[in-house]
Amino acid sequence: MGGAIHDKKEQMNYLHNRLDMVMNVLENIDPEEAGVAEIDRLLAMLDDIETKCKQFRYDWSE
After folding, report:
1. How far apart are CA 32 and CA 29, in angstroms?
2. What's the rounded Cα separation, in Å, for the pair 24 and 32?
3. Distance from CA of residue 38 to its chain's centroid?
4. Which of 2, 29, 36, 54 has the most crowded CB, counting CB atoms within 10 A?
């Protein structure tokens, strides 16, 4: 994994890229074939984004 991101612009780019990844996964899920594993994967991705948002919020309040 990469190092810590402290620059606000880099943080926003990171979040943008992660959200793009979520959208890509959503667009490629076949609703006829998808199951609980796909939903769990999406939830895990969103949890990771939430964690990063909280870290970045802490950085921005300093």
Report:
1. 9
2. 17
3. 15
4. 29
Q: Which long-range contacts (CB under 8 A, 24 or more apart) does 45-48 make?
A: 45/18, 45/21, 46/22, 48/18
Per-residue pLDDT tens digits for 22-50: 999 999 999 999 999 999 999 999 999 99
Which residue reads 């959208």 in tokens?
A: 23
Note the helical H segments in the chain: 8-28, 36-61
CA dist 5 and 52 (Å) reads 10
